[in-house]
Amino acid sequence: MTPYDEMIVRAREESEGLVLVERDGPHATVTMNEPERLNPLSAALTIGLLDSLEDLARDPQVRAVVLTGSDPAFSAGGDLRLMVEGARPMLAGEEGAADLWRWIRNAFGGIARTITRTDKAFIAAVNGPAAGVGLAFALACDVIVLSERAQIVPAFGKIGLIPEVGNSWHLTRHLGYQRAFGLFARGAPVGGAEAFELGIGNEVVAHEELMPAALKWAERVERLPRHVLAMMKPLLRQAADMTWEQAIAMEEFAEPVCFTTAAHVAGVDELLSRA
Question: Deepest in the core among 61, 118, 195, 275, taking most CB within 10 A?
Answer without folding.
Answer: 195
